[in-house]
Write a structure and sequence with these properties.
AB_hydrolase_fold, AB_hydrolase_1, Alpha/beta fold hydrolase, Rossmann fold
Length: about 260
């Protein structure tokens, strides 16, 4: 996709923004592979208030209230493309002091963004981010496919994504379970990350092992903190909201912003 195409789509991206603290950083929330603004609930506003930071949440192309996908099929580089789009969006939104908070796919985008465009990022926070594909990842996605086909998961997602739901779901599930995607790996971006990072993961995450956390934390240049939460799965900000808020508040308070 050309940069010109990306720029044309910027005004079709749905956002929710709270600029309550002049001169303070903006926390940008990057949703997961089935997520959107509404599924974050009030977590972004709570974190903004706790940290005295501005907040911006957005629906990536193909999700929530943003425009449908403009490309018919994803490849192994689609998350890097999302980081390139985010770079364009930061210019569009006039934000140059961003803290990225990414969940799952959003965490992977945060990692790529911090490695590829380091001057724009103050820090990153990831939840359940992936840097490579594991057996547990494929198994978890196949379980999600089974739920999508046999339960009310599809109708639940349609409440948020409307008629984009089918294309959105299979863009993720269909891509990640192919043999072609099995060797996807973004570890090459890690040594380029010089900002602080907080790497969060539930100990019982059904989509990734703790090897993801240790590999991320050990390869970045900037100081990296790990936060593993016992008895929690893939969505710490939902499953352990208060604990996650407190840990992220503590992390941001150490940044001397």
């Amino acid at each position: 996709m050309s940069p010109l195409k990306i720029k044309i789509e910027l005004n079709e991206i749905s956002i929710k923004r709270f600029d309550n603290f002049s001169g303070r950083p903006t926390i940008i929330f990057l949703h997961d592979s089935l997520g959107c603004i509404e599924l974050w609930k009030d977590f972004p506003e709570k974190l903004g208030a706790l940290t005295n930071c501005n907040v911006l949440v957005y629906d990536r192309q193909g999700y929530g209230k943003s425009c449908p996908f403009s490309y018919p099929k994803r490849d192994k580089y689609y998350l890097e493309l999302e980081a390139d789009i985010l770079n364009e969006l930061l210019v569009h939104w006039n934000i140059d002091n961003a803290i990225l908070f990414g969940h799952s796919d959003g965490g992977s985008i945060a990692i790529i963004m911090a490695g590829k465009y380091p001057k724009k990022i103050k820090a990153i926070i990831t939840e359940g981010a992936h840097i490579f594909v594991e057996d547990i990842t494929v198994h978890g996605i196949k379980e999600a496919i089974r739920e999508y086909q046999t339960s009310d998961l599809k109708s639940k997602l349609q409440k948020y994504h409307g008629n984009k739901t089918e294309e959105m779901f299979w863009a993720w599930a269909g891509n990640w379970t192919t043999e072609e995607f099995r060797d996807w790996n973004i570890e090459n971006f890690l040594p380029l990350i010089n900002c602080p990072s907080l790497i969060i993961q539930g100990e019982e995450d059904e989509f990734g092992t703790l090897n993801q956390v240790t590999k991320i934390a050990s390869q970045t240049i900037g100081k990296s903190l790990q936060f593993i939460i016992p008895n929690i799965r893939h969505t710490p900000h939902k499953e352990a909201t208060e604990l996650t808020l407190e840990k992220v508040k503590e992390f941001i308070s150490l940044l001397n912003l």
